[in-house]
Write a structure and sequence with these properties.
This protein has about 500 residues and is of the alpha+beta class. The chain is built from ten helices and 22 strands.
Length: about 500
């Protein structure tokens, strides 16, 4: 399955790759944020909203005209308490909504009460009008719904609308109440392009976009993704507790087996801060979480996955569900591209946007993880060796990487999900024409050569120039998996389908 690589190209572009894949299309979030230090465009919000409506109301009539969007399903004309004339309202199972981009601030009579939900007989009207100071526009949104509206639909509707000015939530440096905050994240004044080693790492948070007072995430919190067998901790053997003279063969990449089934979790938290002239301009936060079961359905000649079936326990963007629990989707490589497809349903536009940004499949060619940071010589615990810089550059040159250096350490032994694992830690320094950064990753690789990497944690800090701005990107990502069925099942593990019920998502 060769899951153990965490490619630096995605970190450099403010994207992420977990142990579930070694390649994802680069340059998404940072460039996106730089293009719009102003808020999200009305067009992208309309696209996301249209996808959401089609997911929950596939027969709805949707009309788009410029920056306006209107949708309706199962409506009728009826006089209401707030209107003296008949107006369209949704009946049971129906929906009615509108979206419009307008100049200036919202000046309606209820402006001091927004966002608001006002009941009116058998339906309720949700009104929102977030304002962008940068563009001097507000996004007027109204949703009229009956009592049987899906809770997830309403919450996702709110999140999409709130994203309009999410990037402006960080206080400006000249605000008296925010001087300490600005100083804590600003680059060092000595240089307009601070190097990561000279800059204070940004604190990754678990908050939704627009929340600035979320708690800091330390190692203990970030590693709170419970193991699928419900254990709280793992048995650790330090270097002092084992035979230091014993040597271990290092084998990072493992062959995939068709039909093998895994319980898996994958979590990404990322903070992107934009600066102009060393002053904080905008902040974008990312918080993705996926848990569920994954079954390998096809592999290639290199024994890499080419098709996986996922059954979701939880898939969220900033806590908002993207796919309902129990639903399944397929990820596969087709004609050189990675494609996501819902099984028996259509993935929403937001799900199709999020999934490629932190999921993928192993590359069909190029250097393997063993070629990049493995070693052919058996090693003792505590041993270190250099990465193969040429192999790394071969897989990251297209992303602008001009130099990379680093060391790998075989730090200890640890038991994870009942398997004895070697703990490998790699520390890299990356450089390109417009970026520099550091990346540290820890992987838990079973001694059993058939078993896949059980757990991975990555932390990185990258500074990157984007269209005249400086982006500082802090990433904390974790992934965990254990086999629960199919060929290659560990002898000490009974086959079970109940692991997903015991798996608790990290918070």
């Amino acid at each position: 399955m060769k899951r153990a690589t965490l490619l630096c190209s995605l970190v450099l572009s403010a994207g992420y790759i977990s142990i579930f894949q070694p390649l994802v299309p680069p340059r998404h979030f940072a460039a996106q944020a730089a293009e719009s230090s102003a808020p999200s465009t009305s067009e992208s919000i309309c696209n996301d909203l249209e996808g959401l409506v089609r997911q929950y109301y596939p027969k709805a009539k949707i009309t788009r005209k410029g920056d306006d969007l209107h949708f309706e399903y199962k409506t009728k004309l009826q006089a209401t308490r707030s209107s003296n004339r008949p107006v369209p309202i949704p009946t049971d199972g129906g929906i009615l909504g509108e979206l419009a981009l307008k100049k200036g601030t919202y000046e309606g009579a209820d402006k001091d009460r927004l966002p608001s939900e006002v009941p009116d007989g058998f339906h309720t009207t949700l009104t929102m009008a977030p304002y962008s100071q940068t563009s001097d526009r507000h996004l007027f949104a109204r949703l009229v719904f009956p009592s049987d509206v899906p809770f997830q639909f309403k919450e996702q509707f709110k999140e999409i609308i709130k994203s309009f000015n999410a990037g402006e939530a960080i206080p400006k440096a000249n605000d008296s109440v925010s001087r300490n905050t600005a100083a804590a994240i600003a680059p060092t004044p000595a240089s307009p392009e601070p190097k990561p080693e000279d800059s204070k790492p940004l604190t990754s948070t678990q908050s939704s976009p627009g929340e600035n007072n979320a708690p800091k995430i330390d190692r203990a919190t970030a590693s709170a993704i419970s193991s699928p067998d419900g254990t709280v901790g793992n048995t650790v053997q330090s270097v002092d507790e084992v035979d230091k003279s014993k040597k271990y063969k290092i084998k990072i990449a493992r062959d995939s087996l068709v039909g093998a089934k895994y319980q898996a979790t994958d979590q990404l938290r990322q903070t992107i801060d934009l600066y102009r002239d060393r002053q904080p301009l905008a902040r974008k936060r990312i918080d993705y979480y996926l848990s569920g079961t994954m079954t390998i359905q096809a592999i290639d000649k290199r024994k890499n996955d080419t098709k996986q079936l996922w059954t979701v326990s939880r898939l969220t963007d900033a806590g908002v569900p993207l796919v309902l629990p129990g639903k399944s989707f397929v990820i596969e490589r087709k004609d050189g591209k990675i494609v996501f497809t819902g099984v028996g349903f259509q993935l929403s536009a937001q799900a199709l946007k999020v999934l490629p940004e932190f999921m993928g499949l192993p590359a069909p060619s190029g250097p393997t993880p063993d070629e990049k940071y493995g070693t052919k010589t058996p090693q003792t615990l505590g041993a270190t060796w250099p990465i193969d810089s040429a192999a790394y550059l071969a897989s990251t040159a297209k992303d602008g990487v001009t130099s990379v250096s680093g060391m790998v350490t075989l730090s200890k032994m640890e038991k994870v999900h009942g398997l004895d694992c070697l703990v490998l830690k790699q520390d890299l320094r990356l450089q390109g024409a417009e970026f520099s950064g550091t990346l540290s990753e820890t992987q838990y690789i079973p001694l059993d050569p058939v078993q896949q990497t059980q757990k991975s944690r990555m932390e990185s800090t990258v500074s990157r120039k984007i269209k005249g701005l400086l982006a500082q990107i802090k990433t904390v990502a974790e992934a965990e998996m254990t086999q629960i069925g199919g060929p290659g099942m560990p002898a000490n593990k009974p086959k079970t389908g109940s692991a997903s019920a015991r798996n608790k998502p990290g918070t």
